[in-house]
Design brief:
single chain; 398 residues; alpha+beta; 13 helices
Length: 398
């Protein structure tokens, strides 16, 4: 299904490599890892290290910094291909690829010198971003006039951070974080928050609860806990009080990468539905010979192709904004793709009948995974409102 979107032989070679990686490293392990009751045991360093050996973990960095310099469109293709094997692995690497890409652009020269060499040199170094809190999730997407509960007080040479983040993808697995905290009291998080570079081993920073999730289990989400954690001035990313400008300037493709991940789940569902329809005999003939089933498969294909086209358009324009980028592309592609994936997953379950409800057929896992991005990377209803505010010039509380 990728064929019409591949533009270069380099893209084709990368995707062929990723496809083999999925077959060799992810598919043989994903069901067993997913079934572990302890969420931390569902994570696989072996898979991440295998990805590193192929250059996948660092591919979005420029060649000057040891990467492949892949653009956002190619990266989205890779993220989708990974998710055909497992959504969690796609999320672990998508977060790392996205944040490596952002760090190279957003960090100053001294920060890059401190961080990027260590990131490149450690095959287990993942990346995470600390924004979501128990009281602030959708708030930061619009954002509403509320403040982060995680705060930083100015001290000599730096800042003292207290508070907690939760639901953080790669939260317990990362070596470096971009952390957003409130540095100015009495104003909203859009006006008074600052982005900090955070190292894993900083005093006063600990990992809290690792969340036990319904699906996407091969990726860990965790709490980040701060108790008088000192972060020096040299770790401020951008300017104090202007953390959201970092998001606006350097995150345009984030939503599309999330859409690519869930589109990979939709493709995995479609492949199972098509295969089952060809071999399952009902009413005296294979399911695929029944008009209703065949038409439903065509609708699945349409939803996948349309979602992917939207995602690819957003990714290309994120890198080439002068050709027509608009802010809705930072909100709507993921919403469309996740709704399509959920519909495709439930149809796949129905096409399989009772067999789909049994774990050994693998559909049950895909249904759980498909639910993840109705909420992850922004609740869809919030993203629709965000896009509508851009479209109609409504106040965005900024």
């Amino acid at each position: 299904m990728h064929e019409i979107f591949i533009q270069t032989e380099e893209q084709r070679a990368i995707l062929d490599t990723v496809s083999r990686f999925v077959d060799d490293e992810i598919r043989p392990r994903s069901a067993e890892l997913d079934a572990n009751q302890d969420p931390e045991e569902s994570f696989s360093w072996e898979i991440i290290e295998a990805a590193d050996r192929l250059g996948l973990r660092t591919m979005t960095l420029s060649e000057d910094h040891g990467g492949l310099g892949t653009d956002s469109l190619t990266t989205a293709m890779v993220v989708e291909e990974l998710a055909k094997g497992d959504l969690g692995i796609s999320v672990v690497l998508a977060q790392t690829l996205k944040l490596a890409q952002i760090m190279e652009k957003a960090l100053n020269d001294e920060q890059k010198e401190r961080v990027l060499d260590k990131f490149i040199g450690d095959p287990r170094c993942c990346l995470a971003i600390g924004i979501t809190e128990p009281d602030n999730a959708s708030n930061y997407f619009l954002p509403y006039p509320s403040s982060f509960r995680t705060t930083a007080e100015k001290s000599e040479g730096g800042w003292i951070v207290n508070g907690m983040k939760h639901f953080i993808s790669n939260g317990n697995r990362s070596g470096f974080y971009l952390l957003f905290v409130q540095t100015e009291k009495g104003v909203g998080l859009a006006e008074g928050s600052t982005c900090f570079l955070l190292e894993r081993d900083r005093d006063g920073f600990t990992i809290g609860h690792v969340h036990d999730k319904m699906g996407e289990r091969l990726a860990n989400n965790a709490e980040l806990v701060f108790q008088d954690c000192f972060i020096p001035d040299e770790n401020v990313v951008g300017e104090v009080g202007k953390g959201f400008s970092v998001l606006a300037k350097f995150f345009p493709q984030s939503n599309a990468y999330a859409g690519a991940s869930i589109t990979g789940v939709a493709e995995a569902c479609y492949a199972k539905a098509e295969e089952w329809a060809k071999i399952r005999v009902q009413g005296g003939k294979p399911l695929i010979e029944h008009d209703g089933i065949r038409a439903q498969l065509a609708e699945m294909r349409m939803l996948i192709d349309a979602s992917r086209s939207y995602i690819h358009r957003a990714c290309w324009l994120a890198d080439n904004q002068e050709h027509g980028w608009d802010e809705t592309l930072g909100a709507l592609p993921k919403a469309m793709a996740s709704q399509a994936a959920w519909k495709i997953a439930t149809w796949t379950l129905e096409i399989h009948g009772g067999h789909g409800y049994m774990k050994e057929f693998g559909v049950e896992k895909l249904v759980r995974d498909a639910a993840a991005f109705l909420h992850s990377d922004g609740v869809n209803r919030t993203l629709f409102l965000k896009a509508a505010n851009f479209m109609y010039g409504m106040p965005d509380y900024e």
